[in-house]
Amino acid sequence: MFNLLVTSFIIYVAVKWESSGNPDFFSAKRFIREWYLVPLILLTFKEIYFFINLLNLPDYDWILIKIDYMLFGAHPTYVLDKISNPILTEILQIVYSTFYFLPIILAYDFYRRGDIKGYRYVMGTVVYGFYLSYIGYLLVPAIGPRFTLHDFSRLDEELPGLFLTKALRWIINTGESIPPGVPNPVDYAQRDAFPSGHAQLTLIIMYLSVVLNSRTKYFLIPTGILLIFSTVYLRYHYVIDLIAGFLFAVFTVATSPYLFNQCETKIGLRNAREDRVQAVCSS
Questions:
Q1: Positions of E strands within the chain
Q2: Residues 259, 267: contact at Cβ < 8 Å?
Q3: What is the Cα–Cα distance from 207 to 212, expressed in whole angstroms?
Q4: Cis link prior to 195 (omega < 30° from 0)?
Q5: In this predicted structure, what is the pLDDT of residue 33?
């Protein structure tokens, strides 16, 4: 019933709140029509959690652990423990927590300038990338090294930060369906390690910020590099998750321009902006 209501709302907004005749990008209806995608991504992410539990799918962490060990001759999170310190942990935990804001920062750069086609291309690619990563979660459910190679209950002791780390971890854990203080957090955790959606979408955002020449690239690129490194340092992901995230990102940006242009053609909104998108495809 909930999905039916959400779907009905999307159809209503698409049909009744047609934006092509409304030049005001900041009217309430126009804003909702263009930005409902953000909560939709989060809702879909949460539904994957219920699907995996409903299907009673097994975890494949043991395979990912073996691949990492074969590649590096050691567990990467153990190796990174040697350089851990509270200052670095604090910085990386803050950067890791910016993940969901990075696509919004890039998309809003186009939206505020009235470049609605640029905005739609960024958001379309981001949604496409997220949905591809969700398929990966269903095919290869995994919870990550903070549960398998390390003691999740001792994370704050083994990898302490300074001021914000503990609170940010609590927020992230809550968002990933882990209630605070439960004795068996593994049973609640999202199976969202493979591929690394953080690596995949961050690479996509960094790429789009460059090829679409957004001024936000000067913030997104250094932040993105630190974010990708933090996924392993903070024990959220295996390195093989990052490699898979890279491959998913390449597939996303390689196929997204074609899908975007097909959609724009079908709804009659294709115009001179297409040349810019085609340049992305050819590059």
A1: none
A2: no
A3: 8
A4: yes
A5: 85
